[in-house]
Amino acid sequence: MRTVRLRAALPALAGAALLTGTLLSTPAQAAGGVQIHHVWFDSPGSDNRSNASLNAEWVQIRNTGGTAVSLGGWVLKDASDHRYVFPNVKIGAGKYMKIHTGRGSDTASDKYQGRRAYVWNNDKDTATLTRASGSKVDSCSWTTRDPSDKYC
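User: That's the sequence. What structure does it adopt?
Assistant: Structure tokens below.
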């Protein structure tokens, strides 16, 4: 009889373990699905520091979760610790947001760091996204100039 009871309990235990692993499998999923999706680290054309050239360098984040996520105080930074601190904004469920290096007017899908110099190194760098608390959400690294962008 012990064997029968144990066998009957095993599917329930396995299901609970599987469910727990699914809910907390990665930091990005635990953060509502926010992750670094695409980085364009080498803006097209010559690097002349024009605002258009600076804004052609960007990081795109994505919310793969089913609910909006508040990004207020979150930080996007490079390996040299150039930081962009998100204002009190939300990224909607299933939505994308680009963070441009140069100046511009923020919209729901585009944010601007307001810089007058490039942030992302063309040869190698790492984009890291952290919560306001400092806990890491996601990162994306590259080590080559060809191509000039990376899907993460």
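The CA atoms of residues 46 and 117 lie 13 Å apart.
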